[in-house]
Design a protein that fits this description.
The protein folds into 2 domains: 4-124, MutM-like, N-terminal (N-terminal domain of MutM-like DNA repair proteins); 137-256, Helicase, Ruva Protein, domain 3, CATH 1.10.8.50. It is 26% helix and 21% strand. The protein has 6 helices and 10 strands. It has helices spanning 4-18, 117-124, 137-143, 151-155, 166-176, 189-210, and strands at 23-28, 51-53, 56-61, 64-69, 74-78, 88-92, 97-102, 108-113, 243-248, 251-256. The strands form 3 sheets. It has a 4-stranded antiparallel sheet, covered by helices on one side. Helix 3 (137-143) crosses helix 6 (189-210). The longest helix is centred in the C-terminal third of the chain and has 22 residues, at 189-210. The two termini are 29 Å apart. The structure holds a DNA duplex (14 and 14 nucleotides).
Length: 261
Amino acid sequence: MPELPEVEVTCRNVARWTSARRVRELAVDDPAVLRSGDPTSVVGANVAPAYRRAKLCLIPLGTQVLVVHLRMTGKLVRAGPGRRAPRLRLTLDDGCVVVFEDVRRLGQAWLVLDAELPGFLATHAPGAEPWPVVRDGEWLRAALSGKRGPVKTALMDGRRISGVGNIGASEACWRAAVDPQRRVPDLSPPEWSRLMDGVRGWIGDTIAAEDGDEIVYLQHGGVNPFHVYGRAGAACPRCGAAIARLVQSGRATFHCAGCQA
DNA sequence: AATTATGTTGCTAT
DNA sequence: CATAGCAACATAAT
C-alpha cells in the first residue's frame, strides 16, 4: 500500500532495471488492469528512465508512457522464483522482466500517448508536489486554504497535494506535534511550518528506510519504519505517552495525545 | 463472522 | 460552487 515514498523508490528501481533498453513485449495477464492503449504498439520502443508524479509511476516507452498506479497492494518487481501471479509484465531486450503484482487488483495501468500525457496527469494527478521541491509553511497553508475539516484529512486531499496518504498524514502531524483533529482554519504559521517540515521529513526518511529492490508492506510482515503509524499502545518516541488510534473520515489515525497539541 | 488494510472515485448532503 | 463523509471496488489476514 504505497504512498509517495514507496512510489518514488519503485520508480527509481524501474528506471535502474529498464532504462536505455528496448521493449520486447508488454504482456497483459489480467485484462482488467490496462485501461487504455494497445500493448502491441510498444514492442521495440526505447525505454527512458521511469519517474514519479503523485502516486503514479511513469515509464516512457518510445512515444508513449506506461502509467502504473499501485493503489493498495500493487508493486513493480523483477520476475523471479516465488513471485505471485502478475497482472502485467514488461519484458526488455536484455531479458529483464518487470512484473506488476497486485493482490487486491485495485491497481491500474494506462498506455498514454506523449501528446495526451498533460491532460491525463491533470485528471489523475491534479495536486501540487510537496517533494523534492522545497516548500514552506505558507505554501502548505495556501494549498489547503478553504478547507474547514481536520488537518490530517486535509493533508490527504490529492487534488491539493500529491502523494500524502493515510500514513503520511499521521506521521506529518506527529512530527509537527500538531493534533490531527485540529481544524485547518485554526492552525498558526509556526504550526504550518512544522507540518510542512513534517511532510518532507516523513518522505525523506521513509525513502531512506525503504530503499531497495522490493518494499515489503506492513500487512505482509514488513518492518515498520514509522513513528506512530500502526503503533497503538506503544510509547511515543518523543514523550513516552501511549500512542492512540482513532478514526477520521473512516480512516485510522495514530497520534500521541501527550505531545500533539 | 466481523474487522482491518499505506488508494481513488463517485455519490449525496450540507 | 465547494467541501465533507461515506460506500464501492477486490482480496487476504487476524
